[in-house]
Amino acid sequence: FELTCDKSLCNATGNLHGGAVALVFDMCTSATVAPVAKENFWDTGHVSRTLNYTYIRPASEGSVLLVESEIVHLGKSMGMVRGVMRRKDNGLVCYTCEHGEARVMPPKPSL
């Protein structure tokens, strides 16, 4: 994914806001699970269990970031996706994350 750090996503110092970092990672890492979903395997949706992110260096307003994510593990009900945001112009890492996901299990049929 690619993101331009718009002023509306920046804090008072002109850098990408921490809340925006969390939102972008949550959306992008969650979207990474969709292509591998199949019947009875991560096809009923999922929710965040944990979202841990680390600030390496700030991304200033106008910066273009590349957001990369990869599935580390998807089990029967729990998964882990790793993400990184790096500057497009020089490849420097700005933020990283680990996103723990929990699969939403369908309700069991009543007897």
Automatic annotation (TrEMBL):
Signal peptide positions (record): none
CDD domains from the UniProt entry: PaaI_thioesterase
A Pfam family of this chain: 4HBT
Recorded GO MF terms: fatty acyl-CoA hydrolase activity
Every Thioesterase domain range: 14-94
Domain of life: Eukaryota
Gene3D superfamilies in alphabetical order: Hotdog Thioesterase
SUPFAM superfamilies in alphabetical order: Thioesterase/thiol ester dehydrase-isomerase
Similarity remark: Belongs to the thioesterase PaaI family.
PANTHER family referenced in this protein's UniProt entry, alphabetically: THIOESTERASE DOMAIN-CONTAINING PROTEIN, THIOESTERASE SUPERFAMILY MEMBER-RELATED
Protein name: Thioesterase domain-containing protein
Species in which this protein is naturally found: Eremomyces bilateralis CBS 781.70
